[in-house]
Amino acid sequence: MKIKLNKATSIIETWLDKLAKGQYEPLIKVWSGPKGTRRHFFKGMKTNLNHHFLSDGEKRLGLVKEAQPETVSFYEQFPLYDIELCIRLSVEMGIKYPVDEDGEAYLLSTDLLCNEVDFETGEIIKVARTYKPIASFLTETKHPVSITRTLQKLELERLYYKTKGIPFYIETDLNISKTHAENLVWARKSAEYRHEFVHHAEKFTYEFINLAITQPDAHIIELIERTVRKLGISFSDGMALFQWGIWSQLIPADLEKPLHVFEPIVLKEVA
Question: How far is Cα 58 from Cα 73, in angstroms, rounded to an integer?
């Protein structure tokens, strides 16, 4: 059956027209995503855009990438809008390109297309990232046919970006953990009003890390209290600065371990 492109072409033209006007819209929004799934909607700190995530894993990926220093911005549910290339690659791979019951081609998308800084060169590069839970690849949880189809789609995505000269990575539960994301959800709360305290960030970070290294058994709240006392700032500012330090990674905490203010902090360098 010949693949029809009428619907996909119309969607792409509308999407590109909005993009040309400086309006980015994700291909799939939370209210139009698959029913029965956990969907998430939140405003980005770096992009100031409303982000649409279609699963817990996608949300965790967005939270983790947003907080990393090299990430300048990211765009979720980014369409693989060169659909003719996608179809050609699928033919070369010997796989069936996904279509609806009327033979109209589906428009595929990538979970995140990031703009990231290469700190060695200072260049900003595009990097495509897609999240898949480990369970997607296990025969204990998925039928072999489903696993094969998932792998085929990922390979198609990889080849698409290879043709475009864009690095492509598959992210899983192994490197995007629930604990890491939960720590960032708690820490990012202060970022909303960072302009009120960020001028203290450099001194606070320096003093806090020194205390954490020299007093490794002290609880986080004790370290904050001692730091603000030394700097002559309020405890509320100190707590906000600690959260900001965690979210911005100025404080190199091991975020794979839960953060509890009445427990010591584990720093990556001394873990």
Answer: 16
